[in-house]
């Protein structure tokens, strides 16, 4: 369960194992072993991973099925919706699904990389 959750969170955040391991101050091999369930992190590392992904340790361990939405994420989604409304891409009473939000963010990331490549 833990390995699957770690891999899912990493991919959801569009990160490589190397990027995650650097942020957590772990070797890439060690983090890879966590994802493949060949090794279990100790309590402190588990807390660090949960903090990095902004989820609870219970979620990582499979005791909760839903990722907690932080206040920051809620504010970011509201800001995104406001921006889309102001620019005529979304109606005031229209809602966005999590999938649509994810796709918009992915679109922004791709175009940000493209624009940086032009400069």
List keywords for this structure.
globular, mainly alpha, 119 residues, 7 helices, 2 domains, 434 Repressor (Amino-terminal Domain)
Content-based structural category = mainly alpha
Share in β-strands: under 5%
CATH superfamily of the largest domain: lambda repressor-like DNA-binding domains
Radius of gyration (CA) equals 17 Å
The CATH architecture term of the largest domain is Orthogonal Bundle
Helix content: 55-70%
As for the CATH topology of the largest domain, it is: 434 Repressor (Amino-terminal Domain)
- Kindly provide the name of the CATH class of the largest domain: Mainly Alpha
Would you count the extended β strands for me? 0
Spatial shape: globular
Specify the biggest β-sheet. none
H/E element string? HHHHHHH
Into how many domains do the coordinates divide? 2
Mean pLDDT: 85
- Stretches where pLDDT is under 50 for at least 5 consecutive residues are none
Please count the helical segments.
7
Alpha carbon gap, first and last residue: 43 Å
Would you kindly provide a written description of the structure presented here, covering whatever features stand out?
This protein is mostly helical and 119 residues long. Helices cover 67% and strands 0% of the residues. The protein folds into two domains: 2-61, lambda repressor-like DNA-binding domains (434 Repressor (Amino-terminal Domain)), CATH 1.10.260.40; 71-118, no CATH class. It contains seven helices and no strands. Helix 2 (17-24) packs across helix 3. The radius of gyration is 17 Å and the shape is globular. The mean pLDDT is 85.
